[in-house]
Amino acid sequence: MALGANTFQIFSSSPRMWRYPPLKTDEVRKIRQIREKHDLYPLVIHDSYLINLAATDAVIRGRSIASFREELERAVAIGADYVVAHPGSYKGQTCEEGISAIVEALKEAARGIRGVTLLLENTAGAGCSIGSRFLELAAIRHLVQSSLDIPVGYCLDTCHCFVSGYNVSTGDGLRETVREAERILGLENIPVIHTNDSKGAFQSKLDRHANIGEGHIGVEGFRRILNHPKLRRKAFILETPVDQEGDDLKNLQTLKSLCQNSRTNTRV
Q: Is residue 142 annotated as part of the catalytic site, yes or no?
């Protein structure tokens, strides 16, 4: 609220621990009241960094499925609109086998869950991570959607797009990326965009976020992204570093300054 944002993303627990402390009823009630009072929509929950729904190790896979179900249940309890998930790593198997493992894990984790939307996030493409190509994300959604009671969509990360080979830093590159996203994913299925500049060069597969305008995408790149007629009504979520006090406010103000028409109701 102090930053002046009208949408936000949280972790429902520590993203680097398997343990989930119980939600407190009074805190959940307060979150819902504050959101209503200050028009904070949508609320996005990002899942734990430890979760790997493609894991072959039985222990890690079991923990990942249980933890992801916990994430979904907590999102419903809090009243979150979306849960964003990294698909997983296919280490020790083929990418196709990894995608199948993710689909089966999602079916188990989300059984009977209603009241929230799952968003699959594109990845930077390093190592054996799944989801750096739009076709991989689309395959997961295609295979799992009919088996779940919750909708499945996508969250696109600008840094991940750039370092994995979608050049959103240029006008031509952004137009091509949007065309590909529309053709393969469906823009109506992408309600959230993680808005991060990139410390890594184009196609470097380096997942290192930079402050807006201080990376390889640049200020003009984000001006085009925020004002693209097919993107400007999406929810733009910052995941930029806070190296100095006030960096979060600076990044938010930069994004707002780049929105050319306030009447577009851009959510940042």
A: no
CATH for 8-262? 3.20.20.150
Active site residue 46: yes
Q: Is 228 a catalytic residue?
A: no
Catalytic choice (35, 86, 216, 267):
86
- The residue ranges of every structural domain in the chain are 8-262
How does the average pLDDT of the chain come out, rounded? 95
Report how far Cα 80 is from the mean position of its chain's Cα atoms.
14
Q: Which pLDDT band, with edges at 50, 70 and 90, does 268 fall under?
A: confident
Contact 134, 122 (CB under 8 A): yes
Is pTM beyond 0.90? Reply is: yes
- Tell me which of 19-23, 161-165, 169-173, 213-217 is least confident: 19-23
Cis bond before residue 21 (omega within 30° of 0)? no
Answer for the pair 57, 98: CB distance below 8 angstroms, yes or no: no
Between CA 233 and CA 135 the distance in angstroms is 24
The beta-strand segments (E) located in 93-157 are 117-121, 129-130, 152-157
- Residue 38 annotated among the catalytic residues of the structure: no
How far is it, in rounded angstroms, from Cα 198 to Cα 203? 11
Is 157 considered catalytic here?
yes
Catalytic residue (one of 73, 121, 136, 197): 121
> Within its chain, how far is the Cα of 79 from the centroid?
17
CA distance 89 to 9: 23
Residues 6+ apart with CB under 8 A from 183: none
- Output the six-digit token pair for 57: 């190790």
